[in-house]
Specification:
heterodimer; A: alpha/beta; 6-stranded mixed sheet; 49% helix; globular; B: mainly alpha
């Protein structure tokens, strides 16, 4: 064999392998990015795509045509956009970014308003977003420049890679299984679906307490949890203030709320030593804008069946949250759910919440998870 | 621009390759050389164009000084020649010192005299440590009359040639220029291209697939965890030991492979360093071109082993202390350099006294010393290093899988816990498989240089490198770091 032939065959080989992988991934589309070819027993049920949130959502935002925007972490991602459409009119997009720190939310806000004529913003603001030491999402680190310069997002690397090939193979196997396993995924409006949980719920196999415990670990593990090394950032709050100011100046209505968490999650904050920082967060928030606080102890937060885990409220309660947020005076259901907070009543509100705190053995919960 | 990026592999490298050989084919050899310099500077500026003037000024300055040094005959004015060399070296070191060590110096000065001088927060210009050392070597070689350079374009190719610009290997003028001057090297050589693709593929796989896998566990252990148990600490240190080797040697392989496409042979930089059976042996196998530089331009000028044992020991120690500082502006790097200097002193004394040991024990001690000393090299602060070392020695607890708790319950009386045994580093059973595989790769397999030496144009090599390359390219989607990028 001559060296020239060696090179030619080598080139053909690498191109063939690469394109074959790309083609398989494009057709199977395990992450639901293109949804061009849907074949029964092949790729109807997709894989989880939450790790690719930015790549998935930014191109949808860039296409434009959205009137309302939901901003925040994954907790706002479960809010039903159709309900928001009904209350606000127009089309609603959910720019929820799981586990995101404020700089990413700020960047995505700028990206959204650049390409859309946004009229309303529903901001589900999270305490964890203001942790100065919160690790940035990997895709944010990788795509920061593109977001900040309002660039387009290429997605070819989603297809031309081995991780996706493994997901493609898994997708085919899963679609052929007797009971296909459903995954978390985003809809066209950026909303987050939990079809797997729904299916399990239907089958009676959903273990809610395990799900709650796993999420408590995810949030409160002292080294690696999302609240680990929590240091409240005043700078991040100033970033949030800029969003509010921008909305006021540009005639965009902004509705701010703190998403409801399951009461155990609320108690765990105290056990993790974060009560004071949590209060600072609320005080500074009240200085900037009025907001609706859904945290604390009430008829919704004490019933774990309202949640998928320790802090993600089920979609069915979207209407309740939105009505409390937009028309609090008209809302008659669950009177204790959702407190209107202003800078005038913040201290009384905090005192009331302080009385609701209760001791839980966070260490025991975390240890029990590690034992399994 | 990183070698392991789509833009480099699918755009920059092919375009540079074809234009370079096209110009040579049209007998426009100077234009081809100029194009190679332009491409290299484009490659350098891709990350941040702001430091392009810096490297240009540095190149021009060293070229002028080097030219003057070669002009002055040894018997003409020795004093002038030496002064010129000293000015040249000091200027290079001043530039490196300003960008790399200014904040380190200010921090320590503030600490010692309790002052509050603000830090400069300078971004380190890409590859400054590499091109500075390379040019210092050039000046010394010029002083010694070992170089004959009259053309700035030639000199620019020598310094800026993109495969070795960012992270070495640190090359000598004398080993590069004849290759660029050789007319036969200006014609496409298909065997070299095949070999280059073969070596590049190995490097890409080592960097993207192996090193980046170990990176996750090393980063979690060093940067995230507050406390590590015995197993976690060993996972952390071994992961970094393998990450560093596969990262740096993989990148070097890519450099050697890319250079071969242009018919340029770069020197070997790694030769199975973890097979070393002594610390001296290790430094003959690890970052060979740096060792060569330190020996030729620091250790020997200091007096080497020519002034008695005590001076030899102090010269050895000083050389490695400097090597440590070169790697980074921090006390952990200084300490790492000192540890290696000390180990070399002990090794030399041991041999002088006529002691020997079994090969396996020698390897075991050497490997564990290297593994432990990398902890200081990697740690951002001494506290992080102590955290890992305490864990490795079992001082922060021993945890075993919960599944063993019934069979080994008697161990609880010795303080052994069950459960939570690899939480802090992340990972699972595969982590152990990767670590074992990593160990097997570095000990039992031929290294890339040996594979390249026995390279034959065959279906076997084509299939082997084609698969490595494809897997490498198809794994480039994740966040990747290059450890020697900021050195």
């Amino acid at each position: 064999m001559s060296a020239q032939k060696w090179i030619k065959i080598w080139m053909i080989m690498i191109l063939t392998i690469s394109f074959a992988v790309g083609l398989i991934n494009y057709v199977i589309d395990p992450l639901g990015f293109n949804k061009k070819i849907l074949i029964k027993n092949m790729n109807i049920v997709k894989e989880d795509n939450t790790l690719f949130t930015i790549k998935y959502k930014m191109p949808l935002l860039k296409k434009g045509g959205w009137d309302n925007l939901m901003l925040g972490t994954s907790r706002i991602g479960l809010m039903d956009t159709h309900v928001a459409d009904r209350y606000l009119g127009g089309k609603t997009f959910t720019m929820s970014l799981p586990g995101s720190a404020m700089p990413l939310q700020w960047d995505s806000f700028l990206y959204a308003i650049k390409f859309n004529n946004i009229k309303n913003i529903i901001y589900g603001i999270d305490f964890m977003t203001f942790n100065k030491n919160l690790k940035f999402n990997d895709d944010y680190v990788q795509l920061k420049e593109e977001i900040q310069s309002f660039d387009s997002f290429y997605t070819y690397d989603i297809y031309f890679n081995i991780q996706t090939l493994i997901k493609s193979i898994r997708t085919i196997v899963n679609n052929n299984a007797l009971h296909p396993r459903y995954h978390v995924y985003y809809s066209e409006s950026g909303m987050r679906h939990f079809p797997n949980y729904k299916q399990k719920l239907k089958n009676g196999t959903f273990k809610l307490q395990n799900s709650i415990n796993d999420h408590i670990k995810y949030y409160f593990d002292k080294n690696r949890g999302i609240y680990a090394k929590y240091e409240y950032s005043h700078e991040y709050m100033r970033m949030f203030k800029k969003i509010v100011d921008y909305c006021h100046k540009n005639d965009i209505k902004i509705y701010v709320y703190i998403p409801p968490m399951y009461a155990e999650h609320f108690y765990a904050l105290k056990e993790a030593g974060l009560k004071q920082a949590f209060e600072t967060f609320k005080r500074e928030l009240a200085e900037i804008t009025d907001f609706t606080d859904f945290t604390g102890v009430n008829s919704i937060t004490t019933n774990k069946d309202n949640y998928w885990d320790s802090s993600h409220l089920r979609k069915e309660h979207t209407e309740l949250v939105i009505s409390k947020l937009l028309y609090p005076e008209d809302s008659v259901e669950h009177q204790d759910f959702g407190v209107q907070v202003t800078k005038e009543n913040i201290e009384a509100h905090l005192k009331q919440q302080n009385d609701q705190y209760k001791y839980i053995d966070l260490k025991e919960i975390l240890d029990s998870i590690y034992r399994h | 621009m990183l070698f392991n990026s789509y833009i480099f592999i699918f755009a920059f490298l092919p375009v540079t390759f074809f234009v370079y050989f096209y110009l040579n084919k049209k007998r426009l050899t100077e234009a081809a050389k100029g194009f190679l310099v332009f491409s290299s500077l484009f490659f350098y500026s891709w990350w941040n164009i702001i430091y392009l003037p810096l490297i240009l000024v540095s190149m021009l300055f060293n070229y002028v000084v080097g030219k003057q040094l070669t002009k002055v005959m040894p018997d003409q004015n020795h004093y002038l020649k030496k002064s010129l060399l000293i000015i040249g070296i000091i200027s290079n070191l001043a530039l490196l010192g300003y960008f790399k060590y200014a904040d380190f110096f200010i921090t320590n000065f503030n600490r010692v005299v309790d002052s509050n001088i603000p830090l400069l927060h300078l971004a380190l210009p890409l590859a400054i440590s590499f091109f500075t050392f390379q040019q210092i070597a050039y000046l010394v070689d010029s002083y010694r009359g070992q170089t004959h350079e009259y053309d700035f374009l030639n000199y620019a190719v020598f310094v800026a040639f993109f495969p070795q610009l960012i992270a070495g290997p640190i090359v000598h003028h004398a080993e590069m220029m004849p290759q660029f001057a050789n007319l036969r090297n200006k014609v496409k050589n298909y065997r070299h291209i095949a070999l280059g693709l073969f070596v590049f593929s190995i490097g890409l796989f080592k960097k993207v697939v192996i090193a980046d896998t170990f990176a996750v566990w090393a980063t979690n252990g060093f940067d995230v965890a507050e406390r590590l148990n015995l197993i976690e600490a060993w996972i952390t240190s071994l992961s970094y030991t393998f990450q560093l080797y596969f990262d740096f040697s993989g990148y070097t392989d890519m450099a050697i492979g890319a250079a071969l496409l242009f018919n340029i042979k770069l020197p070997i930089n790694f030769s199975s360093p973890y097979k070393a059976t002594s610390i001296q042996d290790f430094w003959r196998r690890w970052h060979i071109t740096l060792s060569r530089f330190l020996k030729g331009y620091v250790y020997i000028p200091l007096g080497g082993n020519r002034h008695g044992e005590i001076r030899t020991y102090s010269n050895l120690f000083a050389t490695f202390l400097l090597g440590g500082i070169w790697h980074g502006a921090g006390w952990t790097f200084v300490f790492w350099g000192a540890l290696h200097g000390l180990a070399l002193v002990i090794h030399r004394a041991w041999h002088k006294l006529g002691f020997r040991m079994y090969t396996f024990i020698a390897w075991f001690i050497t490997f564990n010393f290297i593994n432990a000393s990398w902890v200081f090299f990697r740690a951002k602060e001494f506290e992080d290093a102590i955290k890992v070392l305490k864990g490795m020695s079992g001082m922060t607890g021993i945890n075993l899988p919960y599944g063993l708790s019934t069979k080994l319950s008697f161990l609880t009386q010795y303080g052994v816990d069950f459960g939570n045994f690899i939480v802090e580093t992340g990972g699972d059973t595969y982590t152990f498989i990767w670590l074992i595989a990593g160990m097997v790769f570095v000990l039992a397999f031929k290294n890339s240089v040996e594979l390249a030496n026995s390279f034959k144009v065959s279906y076997k090599t084509m299939l082997f490198s084609g698969i490595l390359f494809s897997v490498g390219v198809l794994s480039m989607n994740k966040v990747s770091e290059f450890l020697y990028f900021n050195f």
